[in-house]
Design a protein that fits this description.
The protein is α/β, with parallel strands linked by helices and 433 residues long. The protein is built from 20 helices and 14 strands. It has a domain of 205 residues: Rossmann fold. The structure holds pyridoxal-5'-phosphate (PLP).
């Protein structure tokens, strides 16, 4: 499988090269040159298939020759080694819980898959790979955990001191080994700027095998399809495919879901569930795509004013907007509505939503009102304990700590403190060689 750049100026590459580059030299996102299609027998037999076998069938055509089958199977078994349950709330509404991975958010699948692929590529090339990433919160934890102890890979994470939550900070600073946390005396944008400077540094890149792990990377984006195939495996009413509502920020997760549908996965309709950062809901209403300044909300992982992956969704539909609207709706939800939903669902079902899942739930509920026959799934993208300061006062109860958090809370934070100083970062990277 070859990947072309959506900006059309860079040459196509295979999976391995596209993953290592992350973004094309012309600043475009990579997109697969064709979308594999399953025949209906695959879906008829899906209930009897092993989760890992499903994942292998889904991803193998995308990986192609870049990773041998045996290695790919191992990568997959290390990626989905936690449950992804579809939980029934009512006859019509199900929650797809994507938060049972080690950092309690859906990004674990993408980060784990990518890290194992990179481990293989570095071995093949017999050169240490240095992954450099700036984080404002969730990404850092998933990347740190995913790459932890992966042979041949060093990970350097820059985060703004005092500006990530305490759980998030522990998730990136307590692992040690090949994970290096740089605590920057500055804000997220300055961290990002330092990372960009490193990627543009010719001498550094001639000496180090340096790469990024951000969410537009094909090795993070494509495996997110697993979630939706595994949801369908558990869907009880195969005669009536589900409506699926997905809390969206950068639109990587929903884009993977729509790609799965393009491969034949039965889905009635998709809903992009957004907070007040409503670029896509506005686009579907007006036909105009206008990036906006980000507004801070309680569902902060969705605070994105110019969603990177939306161009990939347009590409799937070959820019046919009316076709896109037939399968995709989008709603925008306020923080007040999000809070009311968390309260209401706890009362009604004794189910604890996190703020992102609550946006997903409410959008689904709205859409289902259109037709009494409809049933659907909303995606729970994070464990509510990650947002206990918002959620606990609303439900008037404490959320028990899952073992993954309990383990991390008592550990000792180890960081290297630095000012916004590129030379410091440069020296740090050189000594990893
Ligand atoms: C990253 C994230 C999102 C948004 O996912 P996208 O793929 O960027 O649309 C939603 N919820 C949580 C908890 C996240 O961490």
């Amino acid at each position: 499988m070859q990947y072309y750049s959506l900006n059309g100026q860079s040459p196509p590459l295979d999976f391995k090269e596209a993953a290592i580059r992350g973004q094309a030299p012309d600043k475009g996102l990579y997109f697969p040159e064709h979308i594999p299609v399953f025949d209906s027998s695959f879906f008829h037999g899906i209930e009897k298939m092993d989760d890992r076998e499903i994942a292998y069938q889904v991803i193998q055509p995308y990986v192609g020759e870049s990773i041998p089958g045996k290695v790919l199977k191992r990568v997959i078994s290390e990626t989905i080694n936690f449950p992804i349950p579809l939980v029934k709330l009512s006859e019509k509404i199900f929650s797809l819980e994507m938060f049972h991975g080690p950092t309690l958010a859906f990004k674990d699948v993408g980060a784990r898959f990518m890290s194992r692929c990179f481990g293989y590529f570095s071995k093949e090339r017999n050169q240490k790979l240095v992954v450099l990433v700036a984080t404002s919160g969730d990404t850092g934890g998933a990347v740190a955990n995913g790459f932890y102890d992966v042979n041949g890979v060093e990970v350097v994470i820059l985060y703004p001191s005092g500006k990530v939550s305490s759980v998030q900070e522990k998730q990136l600073t307590t692992l040690g080994k090949n994970i290096h946390a740089l605590e920057v005396n500055g804000n997220f944008d300055q961290c990002q700027q330092l990372v960009k400077q490193a990627f543009a540094d010719v001498e550094l890149n001639a000496n180090l095998f340096l790469t990024s792990a951000n969410s537009i990377n094909v090795a993070r984006w494509l495996p997110q399809q697993f979630y939706y195939f595994l949801a369908y495996k558990q869907w009880p009413d195969k005669k009536h495919p589900p409506v699926i509502s997905i809390p969206s920020g950068n639109f990587g997760n929903i884009c993977a879901a729509i790609l799965a549908h393009a491969s034949g996965l039965p889905v009635q309709h998709f809903i992009a569930a957004c907070n007040v950062n409503d670029v896509v809901p506005e686009f579907l209403k007006t036909g105009e795509y206008r990036p906006k300044t980000t507004i801070a909300t309680i569902s902060n992982a969705m605070d994105v004013g110019d969603p990177n992956n939306f161009v990939r969704i347009l590409e799937i539909f070959e820019e046919d907007i009316s076709e896109l609207k037939r399968i995709l709706s989008a709603y925008s939800i306020t923080d007040d509505e999000t809070k009311t939903t968390i309260k209401k669902i706890y009362k009604q079902y004794h189910y604890v939503l996190d703020p992102h899942g609550a946006v997903g739930y409410l959008c689904l509920e709205r859409f289902l009102k259109k037709d009494r026959e409809l049933k659907g799934i909303f995606v729970e993208t994070a464990h509510p304990v990650k947002f206990y300061d918002v959620v606990e006062p609303l439900i008037g109860a404490k959320i028990p700590l899952p073992p993954a958090v309990e383990n991390v809370i008592d550990k000792f934070k180890v960081t290297t403190k630095m000012d916004v100083d590129y030379n410091f970062l440069r020296d740090f990277l050189f000594q990893l060689k």
